[in-house]
Amino acid sequence: MNPVVTISGGGIIGNYISLRLNRNSIESVVIEKSKDKTSAKENIRTVTLNPFSKKLLDEVGIKIPYAEIKKINVFDGEGTGSIDFSSDEINEDHLSYVVYFNDLEAALKENVFKKTFFETEIKNFKENINNGKCEITLSNEKPIFSTFLAGCDGRNSNVAKLASLKPVTSDYEQTAITFTASSNLINSDTAYQIFSERGIFAIMPLPASTDKSSHTIVWSVDNLKIGTQNIESYIKENISYFEKKLKADITINSNILSFSLSNHHFENYVTGSIVLIGDAAHSIHPLAGQGINLGFADADAFCEEITNAYQNKINIDKHLVLKRYEVRRKNMNLLMLKSMDFFVNLFKSNNLYIKLIRNFGLSGINKTQFIKRFFINHASGKNKI
After folding, report:
1. Beta carbons within 8 Å of 241's beta carbon, 6+ residues apart
2. Which residues pair with 179 in a beta bridge?
3. Residue-wise pLDDT tens digits, 67-97
4. 30: closest CA among 41, 40, 21, 39?
5. Which residue segments constitute the domains of the chain, with CATH numbers given?
């Protein structure tokens, strides 16, 4: 077997890349360690797509239910500072779209099912100097000869480990909590985010196929605040604080998911025939919901570079192709990671002077259209390189 691109990881980003490359007549296969059929899971986890990511999905024919967000209201729960964003400010119909993680993953998986090797992992690989191919050995001992090996296998990437690439990591010492809930919030196209000592709390509408009173909640909390309590107890004791801030009633109507928060990135995304993409290359705090969008931006740049090279058919230099991808994406991703770290640290601080600056800062930005448009354009994916 001699695909142009072998993709390790049959998640959202890996499957999107395979679908897009195959539609451009560039052969790819996906190596996925899980089974081809998984039991139905409760729809709890959501992802927030910016307009650019949704456009990429539209272009490859992915149609799933989504909730439209036209406004985002952000405020400091400990003070009076606030900022609001509107799609009208950047002449867009919407700022973002909320979809169920399971729906998106299933739709992409269905489209590349025949190109996927399930219950299989990459055991080893080696560069073949004679033919310029990467010889990949699978866990079933079958070989694949591929020009490129793309690691799309998440933050604990097997490909990165096999390539001896070392990540730079940092622990936020926080826990992310997510669940679905019913509320009586009036505006069905508005997302709210509150920064407080009880954590960073975001509430957004759920996809259109559900009741308009249904919302998804993503809540990140310092581990010290949780202490020895279990997650359910912490939620019950503190959710009333956010109900008062939002002037709304919130009723939990799903199981509660939680996971530890940390970030990572690699100083090099590329080595030889190997390339890291999406969460395999970097991860950030979920406070702005940008992790999945950085992954789609990576995937778009990678697919563009591969497609351009093969359509031009002029002495393809695979090292140059991968380097161009790395140059386009690494600094942009690092900028977003550092920005999220800055906001996390800013709103974690209990220093009175920092709290005052924080309040004035939010209100000041809210009055400055140029700065607001810059933030919105960046988050919506308009600042494309």
Report:
1. 77, 196, 198
2. 217
3. 999 999 888 766 666 778 888 877 788 999 9
4. 21
5. 5-169+261-380 (3.50.50.60)
